[in-house]
Write a structure and sequence with these properties.
The structure is a homodimer. Chain A is α/β, with parallel strands linked by helices. Chain A contains eleven helices and 15 strands. In chain A, the strands form three sheets. In chain A, strands 3, 4, 5, 6, 7, 14 and 15 form a seven-stranded mixed beta sheet that branches. The two termini of chain A are 20 Å apart.
Chain lengths: 344, 344
């Protein structure tokens, strides 16, 4: 094996030890050591170099039907990330290649990767792009922001666009794309620092701090003609406030509902869905998977915008395999400042 | 005046006496007598012959922003209906013409009708179509069902289509249009009689009686591959049950949310909006006004289907000006059997 890995080496993993009730905690995970997998014909072995964390991963820990199968108890948690090929029985992958895809909370991943590339599998990534950029604005959150804003939200120049979770990995890219497309952009985020970043670095028009202000009142002030496009990451009372301020024909791109992800009991939805009739508005749920044909163009546009400084981004890079669970938890306490990554 | 009306005649009206808190009651209305209006240049006087009642009218009684201005206290309530022209200073209308449009709970209506025809005004109706058909499946509820099902729901042959309020004026037409278009149709309605009518007369595939069965369980049984199109009239727990049973890419045409119309306090929305992401589904609010260019084709299709017996319909015709308020209330007790009309 080119990089000198030995099959006698150990593969440390963080397993799902129990299904959380309510807020996730470190005790929901358990450390295990297993042998580094032997690879069979057509299979590839990769060493996990980076992991990326998203709030939606919280849902994978629950035993209920969702857009992916839940993680089984006793199996390693999953996370998107980058791996470096260390051994390959597949001519499509050579040692040293770096691939992006769904990893696990492990030091090594293996399998028949070519069989997966058609759908949601591993794709080789360029070596001349910084890793933080690849996993940040050019990663799945950035790509989701791109298709969610442009293909689902469909803003026109001059539209008023509101983004919740606007300082987050997805929301910040969505908000800046709307700005690039000539829209008036209002971001909703928690705390003065995030709002300052939105105004000064992301250069959107207005920032609403939901922790210190009445979101409904601030929406009425900042969107007097109503909200044409709403990029929704949060749900709860924020969604309700925006529904009361829609413009005629408004489009809501429903990307996430993070405010409810740690609830043991599902919380009630908005009381004012009737506003969808009053405003002849729509809500469309979205996942990146349905837009895979758009990824090459999205990747190229985002790379150009980020390189030109038109899209600002922040990554919060933690270090070390042992810190995987506590890094994941940062998403739910708001401790992360930018896209949450971890380098192994 | 051709029909012998005298300007000394009295015009009885039912006024909105107070804004209901919660369930509407007869005491919310008050009888008044006013002179029959004198008409000025370009104006027309019509005698109201038929009124038509819809659950959404309940919302017009509340003093809050909606898709139409609220009825003012002390002003007559509104309702769509038919009037016969009795005097006209507008060459576009002759005595004896029958027009469809937004009437009031009055014996006479007057005004500059030509100015209103462009938008939501009065249109002359054919004399060779039964009045009950004109105000039933060919009226605004039938036309709404047509555009809501075909333009918003967009069912494909073989799709599983669910309709709530399926025995109602709008739902019953929506369900039968889906059947005509080759879909498997499941209707949700309250009570054995309505369900029997759906199966035997409307000839849809399944009927779920929400009063006597677990809607969620029955949806899982009758829609094992999920719901492709949902035509929503009801909201509340019914919406929640359908959201849990959506097929990938499902479309929800949001026509009404009648379950909440009489609530003094707005009720919470569905707890499972996340299913819109899981299923990449959409909710689109709709009003007929946005589809006025579709009305001629819709009217022609519906007339052909009704005449050929492909669309069954029921009208519940009450009689007499004095019975207007109690007739309106029938909508909220489920007493009406079919489209609620009243002949003056």
């Amino acid at each position: 094996m080119a990089t000198g890995e030995s099959s006698a080496a150990r593969n440390r993993q963080w397993l799902l030890a129990r299904r959380p009730s309510g807020m996730v905690s470190e005790a929901d995970f358990e450390l295990a050591e297993r042998p580094v997998p032997e690879i069979g014909p057509g299979e590839v072995l990769g060493r996990v170099r980076w992991l990326s964390f998203e709030p939606a991963m919280r849902g994978w820990m629950d035993d209920r039907e969702s857009y992916v199968a839940p993680v089984e108890l006793g199996e390693p948690m999953r996370a998107p990330g980058l791996a470096e090929v260390v051994a390959s029985n597949d001519p499509a992958y050579a040692p040293g290649d770096v691939v992006f895809g769904m990893m696990s909370w492990s030091e090594y991943v293996s399998g028949g990767w070519s069989a997966r590339t058609a759908g949601r599998g591993y794709r080789r990534v360029p070596t001349d792009v910084p890793r933080e950029m690849l996993l940040g604005p050019l990663g799945s959150t950035g790509l989701t922001a791109y298709v969610g804003m442009l293909d689902v939200g469909r803003p026109e120049p001059g539209d008023t666009v509101v983004v919740s979770g606007a300082a987050g990995a997805t929301g910040s890219v969505a908000a800046q794309i709307a700005r690039i497309k000539g829209c008036r952009v209002v971001g909703i985020a928690g705390g003065a620092a995030k709002c300052r970043w939105l105004l000064e670095e992301a250069r959107i028009d207005e920032a609403i701090d939901y922790k210190s202000s009445d979101v409904g009142r601030r929406l009425r002030e900042t969107c007097p003609d109503g909200v044409d496009v709403y990029f929704e990451n949060v749900g709860g009372s924020t969604l309700e406030a925006v529904l009361d301020n829609l413009a005629l024909g408004a489009r809501i791109a429903l990307c996430g509902l993070i405010s409810g992800y740690n609830d043991a009991e599902a919380q009630p939805g908005p009381r004012n869905l009737f506003q969808l009739i009053v405003r002849r508005a729509s809500i469309q749920g979205l996942l990146l998977w349905d837009f895979l044909d758009r990824v090459p163009e999205a990747f190229a546009d985002l790379r150009r915008w980020v390189t030109a400084g038109e899209i600002a981004y922040r990554v919060d890079v933690q270090e070390g395999f042992e810190n995987i669970p506590c890094t994941f938890l940062r998403l739910f306490t708001g401790a992360n400042e930018g896209k949450q990554l971890l380098r192994l």
